[in-house]
Amino acid sequence: MGSLEDVRRQRTRTFDTIAAVVLTVGIIGLLLEVLVGRYGLSWTYIASAWPIYLRGAWVTFYVTTVAYIVGMGIGFIIGWARAARVSVRKPGAQGAAVFGVKYTLRRMGDGYVAAIRGTPLFVQIVFVSSVLVIRFSSLDPNQLALIAGLVALTANTGGYQSEIFRAGIQTVHTGQVEAARAIGFSRWKAMRHVVLPQALRLVIPPLTNEYIGLLKASSLLLVIGIVELTEIGRREAFFQGKPFESFAIVTGLYLLITVPVSKIVEYIERRLRVPGLGSQQAPTTRV
Fold first, then answer.
1. Distances (CA, A) of 96 to 40, 91, 103
2. What is the DSSP letter of 118?
3. Number of structural domains, the chain?
4. How would DSSP label each residue in 199-233?
5. Is pTM beyond 0.85 here?
6. Is 60 exceeded by the pLDDT of residue 283?
7. How does pLDDT run across 165-174, given as a tens digit for each residue?
8. Which residues make Cβ contacts (< 8 Å) with residue 70, sequence separation at least 6?
């Protein structure tokens, strides 16, 4: 019965995926028909110009992925520090020193997250770019723009991911940690063998949302001169006089990146899910 049920569920998921793709394509086609109407699309231009857009899509994917991976390390460290309970375990000066270090790190993490979440990504990109241009004016402008974009996106996603990791770690009940400590686990072993295996499963969906949100937000990098996908679409739309074709290609390429990523992560989530843990998916971190 279990195998038949699995086959049935797999068929249902396959049908849902196909239906979603067909519905999405239909909606896009309807929108194009309504917006473009009698003007039509130049399929000749689309067939000849798509390699240009593909190079822009590669820049978008590269910048987003590098920033996301580095930001994941930053987010995990800050999220862990903010999720840890701050208390004095040892009496005397040593305990006070440990308490002071933990408290300072936690408050620094709080300030970092508040600064990132409280300011627009556009402002962060322009601020980082301005600092680098002033301090390193002798470098190539294209290199400075790429570095500024990577730094700004990394700092931004690091702040959001720290909240995701903090929530995932705090979701694991403290009773499990106390039980691990009672049977002789050190604090690090309890975190490694008890908390992290559960927390990392819980944070997969919101981390996926964060990557997709960061990918779309990377379009703001055009303001500092990075020739990514949206910037190429803008240039082609206004200099080649092909606004409908340009943004149809841009839309299609964004979907080609985000939809497969979502489906792959959904599969990983199903394989790693712990029964009875985290039945509700965490909310999206970006609007």
1. 72, 7, 10
2. T
3. 2
4. HHHHTHHHHHHHHHHHHHHGGGGGGGT---HHHHH
5. no
6. no
7. 998 888 887 7
8. 154, 158
| DSSP secondary structure of 98-115 | HHHHHHHHHHHHHHHHHH
Could you give the CA distance from residue 252 to residue 243 in angstroms, rounded to a whole number? 14
pLDDT one-digit tens code per residue, 181-208: 788 887 778 888 888 888 888 888 899 8
Instruction: List, as own/partner pairs, every contact residues 264-270 make where C-beta atoms lie below 8 angstroms and the sequence separation is at least 24, other chains included.
Output: 265/204, 265/205, 265/208, 268/204, 269/201, 269/204, 269/205
Check which CATH number belongs to the domain holding 147 and give it. Answer: 1.10.3720.10
Contact call for residues 205 and 278 (beta carbons, < 8 A): no
Residue 69's H or E segment, with its range, is helix 43-83
Nearest one of 166, 165, 167, 125 to 148, comparing CA atoms: 125
Whether residue 195 is contained in a domain is answered as: yes
Q: To 5 degrees, how large is the angle CA 154–CA 287–CA 22?
A: 105
Question: Does 117 share its domain with 143?
Answer: yes
**Structural domain for 17, as ranges:** 1-40
Statement to judge: residues 32 and 140 lie in one domain:
no
